[in-house]
Write a structure and sequence with these properties.
It holds the Pfam family ABC_tran. It contains nine helices and eleven strands. It has 267 residues and is of the alpha/beta class. The protein binds adenosine-5'-triphosphate (ATP). Adenosine-5'-triphosphate binds next to strand 2 and helix 1.
Length: 267
Amino acid sequence: MTAVVEVENVTRVFAAARSSVTALDDVSLSVAPGEFVSLIGPSGCGKSTLLRLIADLDEPTSGTVSVFGKTARRARLDQDYGIAFQQAGLLPWRTVAANIGLPLELHKVPASARKSRVAELLALVGLEEFAGHYPDQLSGGMQQRVAIARALAEKPRLLLMDEPFGALDEMTRERMQTELVRLCAETGAAVVFVTHSIPEAVFLSDRVVVMTPRPGRVTRVIEVRLGPASDRGERLRESADFYATVTAVREALHGDGASLPVGVETR
Ligand SMILES: Nc1ncnc2c1ncn2[C@@H]1O[C@H](COP(=O)(O)OP(=O)(O)OP(=O)(O)O)[C@@H](O)[C@H]1O
């Protein structure tokens, strides 16, 4: 089975006149179809750099990145995935509805199908009343929700998301997490998801990849065994298994994995 994302021995050095930063050092990562993988680690450990390399917004100093078995460049040109990054990246001259519908327009989806899909997405992110607004009339969190709706517009087989829920209030954030899990289960989409939140990573993921900075490396990979995505509802957040996995990720982040709870595997 072809991996959706294959990162092999990737190093990214940002060279400057006096010093250079090794943002990623010999990082490898493989994401299977339908798999949800979160990248977590302290600020500056290279999470965003890794995602940018996968999205072909930057190039590795050495090593290779492939997406759906193609070069990262080819996959970007073919628009094989949806992207939702920290900055919403909306087009200011387009309304909310027109921003969300943009990928559908680019792929020449007929107007009637486009309209109904945009209505569905507006409901999903709770912005039905703002369809005709422009981005600068929305709060940061609302803009972020528009960007997420746009990323989901074409039910992509891969989503690349960098702190997409960072600007949201806690209630909306949890709702969006539940929706994202449900959508991925429905569409079979794989996701590479950057976050600073341990509970968020655990709730969403099949695997949590723990990174450390200077140089940016993958130090641990924690398999999350919390049952199928379709069962990940609100009750999961209060379960003992959930807490145990959160603890395991926290310990891995602090470099203390000596006593892992039962049922949590690392490799
Ligand atoms: N364009 C760039 N030029 C120079 N250095 C860069 C560039 N982009 C990233 N870096 C450096 O690479 C390292 C990794 O940065 P990156 O943004 O990937 O980290 P991160 O884990 O996503 O951090 P955060 O959690 O704060 O968003 C940092 O030391 C950063 O300063």
